[in-house]
Hints:
It is a single chain. The chain is mainly β. It has a single domain, classed as Sandwich (Jelly Rolls), CATH 2.60.120. The protein contains 4 helices and 17 strands. The protein has helices at residues 28-35, 87-90, 161-172, 179-186, and strands at residues 4-8, 13-17, 37-42, 61-62, 74-77, 80-84, 94-102, 105-112, 122-127, 138-144, 148-153, 189-193, 201-208, 211-216, 219-225, 234-241, 244-254. Strands 3, 5, 6, 8, 13, 14, 15 and 17 form an 8-stranded antiparallel sheet that branches. Strands 4-7-16-9-10-11-12 form a 7-stranded antiparallel sheet, with no helix packed on it. The chain is globular. The two termini are 32 Å apart.
Amino acid sequence: xxxxxxxxxxxxxxxxxxxxxxxxxxxxxxxxxxxxxxxxxxxxxxxxxxxxxxxxxxxxxxxxxxxxxxxxxxxxxxxxxxxxxxxxxxxxxxxxxxxxxxxxxxxxxxxxxxxxxxxxxxxxxxxxxxxxxxxxxxxxxxxxxxxxxxxxxxxxxxxxxxxxxxxxxxxxxxxxxxxxxxxxxxxxxxxxxxxxxxxxxxxxxxxxxxxxxxxxxxxxxxxxxxxxxxxxxxxxxxxxxxxxxxxxxxxxxxxx
Length: 256
């Protein structure tokens, strides 16, 4: 059975019917194992050492932990990384990252929305703070919301400083974006409907050339091509969590 996609705005917006009933044409977890090198893994079988930026251990760093040192946002409990963001107090969603360092490669992650908060979501992807012209080095992400999966190119989209500065004025004035800017940004992302639940899932996020792919439980609901995905160095792999999510296992693979 072939995937049924309807494309809008020059292929930038997709609606996928019965996305999770389809079989991926290639198993990206197997592709990473066959063609890549495992460069990092973590099963979180330890205890955190406090609430600081490096309290998770094993090379993880929480960019937001030191904003609220009196609050615990990452709890290692029974081999599970339980993230509970103090987004309001910190003024930012919990941002937890680890060194990656590849051009093509990806991450295999087991995750679960525990159902502790309304609207639980997960954003994960790649960052390069050493590249100028991009806000906070944000390159590209997969985003799982309660109702959709999104793939987005931030490098040549909303986090490009020239685009960001132009866009911000219209947002501040609550005005519609100019047609050319709106059309450009729509080419930088793809949306696919998905209904979240409270079960464990295996997620695979792969960057290969100018393509970003996200698989869930061996099926491929979302892929997209955009020039920012081909950024030569994905220095960090990162999680952005606005409320609660559980992570059971993480593996990072470098293909090149």
